[in-house]
Amino acid sequence: MTTQDSATPLLAIAPKRGAASGTTLAALGVASFSLSFPATAWSLTGFGPWTTTGLRGVLAGALAALYLLAVGARLPQRQHRPALLVVSGGCVLGFPLLTTLALRTSSTAHSAVVIGVLPLATAVAAALRTGRRPSRAFWTAALAGAAAVLAFTLLQSHGRPSVADLYLFVGLLVCAAGYAEGGRLSRDLPGAQVIAWAVLVALPVMLLTSAFGLATEPLRVGPKALVGLAYVAAVSQFGGFVLWYRGMAAIGVPRASQLQLGQPLLTLVWSVLLLGEELPAAAPVTAVVVLVCIAVTQRART
Asked: Is residue 4 part of a domain?
């Protein structure tokens, strides 16, 4: 057997191992994100929405700075900076603030189902960014999933979308853009550096947001609020993204985004176990419909 012959099986196995590793990393990121809404709800028991969002970003910024110093990371190149601004605006500023504002009046179960269309939005954003044209089957499933989410929100709000629903829909759009751009950027930069630089870019705004929140919102700090804030800062805003973007870089944005299909269902479980919420009757059904629709989009030709 020649050296070339013996190397062939290894070359065949390596991509599979890489894909499995990437899938595991992305799945761990999804599991981390599934606790974000319950943790935010805990944080809101002691901090206002602006305070929660600001302190979340400030604490995550401190972790990001320590990481970048520890690895001796260089400043991002000029061509990477626009993408980092999109990640920062969508995943560090926009989505956390908008979903925190929504959770003041919306249950985590309801919010999880509305955000269930995020994987679809991420896949669409990635398709638009790369110029690929999805097939008719893709768009049919996409519209069906969006219709299911819209029907659920209208049912729960008695025919009129609430302000919380508007926050959630805008939040998922900006987050989808941040996911797609961050996943693309993670092919050039380590995933940990992508989110670390994005968090640091947002740090000045987060400091101002914290100052505004602390000056205008009441504080009722307790153990539950502190645990919730620590989780959304250390995991939801930083650690989970490290896993998520590394997984995206390994298996691609479309495949990784579909692992988020399980996130709404996981969040529904956490909302019952940790918050004692009662699930709306339509929530599990809607979540399953959305999952099926998004799964079809990934099987469709693009």
From this structure: no
In a domain, 204, yes or no: yes
Contacts of 36 (CB under 8 A, 6+ apart): 99, 231, 232, 235, 236, 240, 267
Composition of the chain by helix, strand, coil, percent to 5: 85, 0, 15
Tell me 97's DSSP state.
H
Domain span at 190:
29-299
The answer for 95, left when phi > 0, alpha when psi is -120 to 50, beta otherwise, is alpha
Give the span between the Cα atoms of 52 and 230, in whole angstroms.
10
Contact 154, 161 (CB under 8 A): yes
Q: What is the pLDDT of residues 26-73, one digit of tens each?
A: 889 999 999 999 999 999 999 999 999 999 999 999 999 999 999 998
Beta carbons of 241 and 56 less than 8 angstroms apart: no
**CA–CA gap between residue 50 and residue 52 (Å, rounded):** 5
160: DSSP letter: S
Question: Of 183, 270, 196, nearest to 239 (Cα)?
Answer: 196
Tell whether 15 is covered by a domain.
no
* pLDDT tens digits for range 179-232: 889 888 888 888 889 999 999 999 999 999 999 999 999 999 999 999 999 999
Alpha-carbon distance of 269 to 55, in angstroms, equals: 27
Q: Which two tokens stand for residue 126?
A: 């990635």
Per-residue pLDDT at 251:
77
**Cα dihedral value 186, 188, 194, 196, nearest 10:** 140
Q: Which residue has the higher pLDDT, 289 or 206?
A: 206
Q: Indicate the DSSP class of residue 218.
A: -
Domains contained in the chain, number: 1
